[in-house]
């Protein structure tokens, strides 16, 4: 795949970029390795000062950053601005909390092991490679980079090949704040070159957000090289509506959950499971609200849904819907690509899905929602847990006992009650099953790429 910006709104090539050759990749890895040795000798206070300065620079340049995001992957401009601000917030969060998260932790049973004192200390690993996707070109990177750098690591970024301008923009962001040269470096390389970078002895760990096949490949290489890996591989999240739920609020939030980022979010609600007693009313509300969304040029204010980021993504989504319809599913609204340039797909609601439809088990990465009717909570949990994914989930109920039951029953990395899943710097993020392993964000996220060192003192 060429490293190029292709405007998904028009399908036109904007700019193609020459990949880094072996010599340039070597130079950038060497820079990151040298910077890692320097950075681990700095204080949290110094790194926090640099991180705040970088966040200020990113926020001050919000218009340019948002323009790049919308140009390269097609999200509405207001959402691009929000992503820039969220990224700056995440940077400040780790600047303010890293020292507390990584403080020495006394071990209370020191005397039991013949020590006058025992504690654990978190120390940086060194150079960490991040293999990142195109759907949140800034935020996905920042939520790795901010904790990694604040812990004293340095970062290498292999970004998705269709967002090179985003990757290049981030290449110098941290140095603008004052971090040593090489603390964060973008590698303009293809996926075939990733294995060699992971295998490089100077690279100590790898994190990937992306597809399940990509995750399996990265995990295999990291395992062979005995290096730490964190994987976030997407999901097919259930959004469960019980009969006690506020249907108007649930339907309104369901639309946002399914269509934010043009529906291209790993943690989006994708499968909407509705109790039979309220199914007809909820499906009517949901379909009406989805049909009312405005599809168009993401640079136009007031547009709700822009194009999908790639032609292949749009075509894959259309195939899932067409397969379901061919097998007997019913389209309540949408269901096709509009006749216009670019890679658009209508906001779609589909129900009466047969078990053999691909849409039942595969992830729909776009504004397509599938509806399922259930009779009781046991059936809801069975449907929710039947996919191989386990990233997040949402439950709508006003019954405390039901709430407690679902929190326990759902196989997922998170459960959001009467809301939609959102990644916050303050909350751990990650999944189970084929959605990956390890966690990002919060305290656990910054600790993933550190050495937990045990200290025993006589």
Automatic annotation (TrEMBL):
Domain Aldehyde dehydrogenase per the UniProt entry, residue ranges: 3-455
Protein name: Succinate-semialdehyde dehydrogenase [NADP(+)] 1
Protein keywords: NADP, Oxidoreductase
Origin species: Microbacterium album
An MF annotation (GO) of this entry: succinate-semialdehyde dehydrogenase (NAD+) activity
Family of this protein: Belongs to the aldehyde dehydrogenase family.
Superkingdom as given in the UniProt entry: Bacteria
